[in-house]
Amino acid sequence: MTARRYVQVDVFADRPGAGNPLAVVLDAEGLDDDQMQAIARWTRLPETTFVFPATDADTSYRLRMFSPRREVPFAGHPSVGTAHAVLEAGLATPRDGLLVQHGIAGKLPLRVSGDGPSRTIAVRTPRASVREIAAADDPRLREALAGLPLGALPPALMDGGRRWWLAEVADEATLRAATPPWPAIGALAEDSDSMGLCVFARSDDPVYYLAVRAWVGAPAQFEDAASGAANATLAAWLASQDALPGDGGFYRISQGREVGHDAIIELTVDADGDVWSGGRVCTVVRGALEWR
User: Fold this and answer.
1) pLDDT tens per residue across span 62-117
2) For the whole model, what pTM was predicted?
3) Phi-psi bin for 11: left (phi > 0), alpha (psi -120 to 50), beta?
4) Sign of the dihedral through C-alpha 5, 60, 88, 65
């Protein structure tokens, strides 16, 4: 039996329990697809990642990520959390402030800023595109958005590797008090081949500019505690509408309070139009995984 280094981290958080949990298997060489899926099912976390040695000189490591149900091509919080774990384990060193992960979504750079507990890591997310802009009274969205007064922007369907419906709510208090209509969100996700509905509202808080809630409709139904990928598609949508908050393409969002978390995600839209999604990470568990 091989003992493999294993960590659990909290992503987009400055303390345990605030962000989105992630399991990382740091010595994954020799594990097959069925074993990785079984481990991800066993951890019962949103995602579990598996780190392999780099095979190309221009990458830092290879990465595969699994939810308890299936392999995932790309997700934001697993990318950021794995980079943190790799750095702590001494498996890679940034070059000019960048790591490069190699996965199904290709070779994606991660920008590393600072050191220690205040270090932030941001991944350049796959390009997202506008698939559709809907009317506020679109019958497909009516039940999912029932009772929510909408903001200035129309609802939109975005595709950034995973599809999300996005809708602006008129104010933060209404957004935070909302109860997700799960049957309607599930139907919306299945009918549009999307993850579900990501709703957001602008905020006057001194730390963050937007409050965000991401309601996953399929294959399971749950509220995501902190989604780097959903927020990256939102950033791309706001940029396309010249509606970014903050200055210079940088802003922070708050997510997860409604499900007992308190994540802060930092978004940057750079001069090339690329979206970087990131924040702080803290390690919660260090140990070894023994898997036959």
Assistant:
1) 999 999 999 999 999 999 999 999 999 999 999 999 999 999 999 999 999 999 88
2) 0.95
3) beta
4) negative
